[in-house]
């Protein structure tokens, strides 16, 4: 075992530079790792370090030999950090950070029922506002995800019947401590005596 590389035996031509971590350490890393892909790469490398062929080591974790080779190269170059997926660029946001902050302030300010004709914004209202103000179109599910990313969530008030009687509701509520059997619910006779 040289300081600059370790040749894995049995038909494997992978060279490991990070030989200070053995198979047991890689397995411990994989066991505590939240990133499943990084954990599987570490397990495959541990298998290879223990003498399994590249094909067998990759097959144990459900990967191909090329995937194991790529993981070893990244592990050699970057250490354990190389086992994690690299960030993907993805599609750029339609609204800039400043526009998202203005949208957040607009939503939090809420509508004026007399001017806007609504008491709360729906996703359709917000999408129309974005289209009108910034010429960016959002589908409802994408808009919901974007609102969640900027710290907003869909909320609704608890429904109340327009003819509901608050006094009658109080009469039928469970008293505090009811679950422990300390207080009893008023009987109908007690209720008629109160009324």
Walk me through the structure:
Helix 1 (23-32) runs antiparallel to helix 2. A hairpin with a 7-residue loop joins strand 1 (6-7) and strand 2 (15-16). The longest helix is centred in the first third of the chain and has 14 residues, at 36-49. The protein has 195 residues and is mainly α. Among the domains are: 6-83, no CATH class; 97-149, no CATH class. The relative contact order is 0.07. Helices cover 50% and strands 2% of the residues.
How are the strands ordered across the major sheet? Answer: 1-2
Class by SSE composition: mainly alpha
Biggest sheet details: 2 strands, antiparallel
Q: Tell me, what's the shape?
A: elongated
Kindly report the average pLDDT value.
82
- Segments where pLDDT lies below 50 for 5+ residues? 1-12
- Structure annotation, total helices: 10
Give the helix proportion (percent range). Answer: 40-55%
Secondary-structure element series: EEHHHHHHHHHH
How many β strands by DSSP?
Answer: 2
Entry keywords:
50% helix; mainly alpha; 2 strands; disordered N terminus; 195 residues
Task: Report a brief summary of the structure.
The protein is mainly alpha-helical. It has helices at residues 23-32, 36-49, 54-60, 65-78, 97-109, 113-116, 123-134, 140-149, 166-172, 188-194, and strands spanning 6-7, 15-16.
Question: How are the SSEs placed, and which strands pair?
Answer:
Elements: E1 6-7, E2 15-16, H1 23-32, H2 36-49, H3 54-60, H4 65-78, H5 97-109, H6 113-116, H7 123-134, H8 140-149, H9 166-172, H10 188-194
Antiparallel strand pairs: 1-2
Helix pairs in contact: 1-2, 2-3, 2-4, 3-4
